[in-house]
Amino acid sequence: MQISGASYIAGQWCIAEGADKFFGFSPKLNQPLTTPIFEATEQMLQQAVSAAEQAFVVYRQTSPAERATFLYAIADEIEALGEQLLEVTHQETNLPLVRLQGERGRTMNQLRAFAQSLEQCKNGLLDLDIKDQADPNRTPLAKPYTHLSYLPVGVVAVFGASNFPYAFSTLGGDTAAALAAGCPVVMKSHTAHPVTSELMTHAIDKAIAKTGMPKGVFSMIQAKGYGIAHQLVAAQPIKAVGFTGSFGVAQKLMETIATRKEAIPFYGELGSTNPQVVFAQKAAEQGKQLAQSLCQSVLMGNGQFCTSPGLWLVPSDAEELIEEAIEQLSQSKSDTLLSPNIVRSFKRSVELLKNAQGVSLLAQGVLEQTFHANAHLFCTDANTYMENKQLHEEVFGPSVMMVKYDNAQQLKQLVDSLEGQLSASIHGSNNDFVTNAQLIEALQYKVGRIIENQMPTGVEVCASMNHGGPFPSSTDVRSTSVGLNAMLRFLRPICRQRAE
Amino acid sequence: MQISGASYIAGQWCIAEGADKFFGFSPKLNQPLTTPIFEATEQMLQQAVSAAEQAFVVYRQTSPAERATFLYAIADEIEALGEQLLEVTHQETNLPLVRLQGERGRTMNQLRAFAQSLEQCKNGLLDLDIKDQADPNRTPLAKPYTHLSYLPVGVVAVFGASNFPYAFSTLGGDTAAALAAGCPVVMKSHTAHPVTSELMTHAIDKAIAKTGMPKGVFSMIQAKGYGIAHQLVAAQPIKAVGFTGSFGVAQKLMETIATRKEAIPFYGELGSTNPQVVFAQKAAEQGKQLAQSLCQSVLMGNGQFCTSPGLWLVPSDAEELIEEAIEQLSQSKSDTLLSPNIVRSFKRSVELLKNAQGVSLLAQGVLEQTFHANAHLFCTDANTYMENKQLHEEVFGPSVMMVKYDNAQQLKQLVDSLEGQLSASIHGSNNDFVTNAQLIEALQYKVGRIIENQMPTGVEVCASMNHGGPFPSSTDVRSTSVGLNAMLRFLRPICRQRAE
After folding, report:
1. What is the CATH number of the domain that holds A322?
2. Which residues of A touch B116 (CB under 8 A)?
3. Helix H segments across B212-279?
4. Number of separate domains in chain B
5. Which residues does the UniProt record annotate as the domain Aldehyde dehydrogenase (chains A, B) (predicted)?
6. ipTM computed for the complex
């Protein structure tokens, strides 16, 4: 398939006259790619938003079964993109092909899971179907018949993430959830994988044609400038925003949203250090094995998962665990990160930690190329960690902050000092869990997901998943961006009332 | 019971040294009341918030059954306040005693309904209890066991409303929902009924003692200055705000919230004109009867309900309906409004409408006292209404804007021009509903509740109610402030994961 570098506005591939160009980047070669991508204009964005608003009137009236057919078709068309998709994304991200295959499968499964859930709706969207029967004889006032169900909120803006070029990008979880709910999507493509985004857009373009959906139901905007992103979230017809990315960018977008006349929900999934709480008995009995699992999880995708276990709280005397972690991470080999920005940010962060008082660097992996990121294992004591908020910040990439605690009281203080997190794991024996019940109770209030004796990476797509957590890990603790409940972000209740 | 004029901070009645005083107001006598109320200080507010934060650690661990017992006890203690409560509130609001009796009953029922719902929880809060079973043999990755349930969000700030001194105030719907969810409440009392608020606080004080709840679970702040309100929503431990009041105040509070580091949900229920769409056949066949019902609904509480039907869309030739409305409202007698501010605002609004181009005043009720508000029936044509956004604004009090439409197309344009509303009623025959199906489909997206052939006033407290709507009628269309789902505003999901 030829790559045009165009944006996709309500069924049309568009390049503005004299548009600025930008280019993707090869992390492997550490140099820009050669396919030009054309910067979308504000006018094009407005066209996309208007088309989506018009499409909403038609799309909101489709039945759950019709939307299911649409989502199945999108999944099939992703599959039909075949090897070209994997090759292009590999070039743009340098993520291993086997990982990309897996993520592509997950992305299709996600669409199909939403489709299935829509097919199972007896009573419309997500089966919100609460009724109260009338009682015309009630005194002093007759009781009416009332029925509660859902409506889609309207046009949704979606921002792709760099670290999941399929599952959290163009046709990823946010887009799937919005389309399932009955909301058109205007998608701001991530500049780290613009060609992947174009291919994915071809897939949905075919699915729209095949299932007769209104053309404005999906648009994809290619733009490197920040202006377009802010215009998108400020546009009046936008009724919700799905975002996966950094705290800094999210904060700027929220400032723009705060200037809107109409407040809209901003669902930002921002990141997390995903504390790994290691209890005494576990460390004593299975320290070596646990260290291996933790290191494997940290190195997965070279640490570029939002659920990467970046903070370990371990007993001071957990020598076996600590030694094995040093061993594992020292032997690990460096790899690329997703973009030059992420590399710069990683190197800056580890430099800061190297120079932080009371922090020691216990191990680092082999740096095979200067533009790679290698694993870092930092270590500090509980008091130093609690006093220096800088040590709490997520380092996006393969870096671990190991905090040693001396006793249960200190561990409780550490947990109390934590910011909001997407997840935390507790590693312990049943005995550990009983002894530390109060600490675990408190830890729940810091996280969106609490995991017993498992790694946080690998977020299951299912009805009972929750991917979201207290601020600053996400901007709306009441919502999840993974799992079937992700649809709820784009639905709202309506009550229908009559006398009987 | 002696009235102290104090604020109630975590079990203590507090008056700051040298505190400023303010006074309630008698709408009936049009003069201030004589009981001094003492302005709370910022320090007192901080004490209340800190105490609530500490109480949260205990209160969140109470079982649903324990919280049910607490809510039942609050309802019982409200009942035990007896006649003094009704007399005081009548003095502060001049709402008729029979109305206040009804509202007191509703307020107790609300608490008991939440309590009942908690008792029926088999699996914890609101029965969110979604599980996915493990599949350890799945390839390439084992599937974990995951379980989704709710946690309370933390300390909730509640602002009382003037127009429902019981049901939407100190121990009203927001407080009941937050306490049911497991969240402590810091309550900013409404200055229009401070003594009512003090009595209600005595009720919850007794219930706290009786059921052994932590003292910080509820505090009540008396303050006339706006500063305290802003300090309250800015305080770090506050995790959600329940507000019922005007658009202007809500906007200011949201500006303060936008300056917080951590974004928190602001649940503002702001008001609405509650369009009454009258279809042709209904107007022709039952115009007179419908006019009577509409006028009765408008005059209820002298128009001071957020669901008061302030906008009527009627066929141009609906002569019988129009004549009857003129007749009814001309004969109606004026009454007080809740506060001098509301009177001023009402008089200013009707003056503006009297002078608005293309708007005629068809009827006004008898003005018995200059400080009263009398009914006003304004009339305009569809084009004038659509062109002048000022005519769309809610007039809080007994005022109606009747807009005449010539045909179905014009009615559709009118519906499309509407802002978000709490509710709308459609008055028609079955035939009307079939003919106007597309219009009704569109109207749904403007409202939180759509009502067939009934008045919008009288919001049923039940599981299938929705009281909330698209902006600007409320600030979070995904939530309701009436009905059992009101609890959802103060809960958030958590996933618990383990291997099996």
Report:
1. 3.40.309.10
2. none
3. 226-234, 247-258
4. 2
5. 26-488
6. 0.94
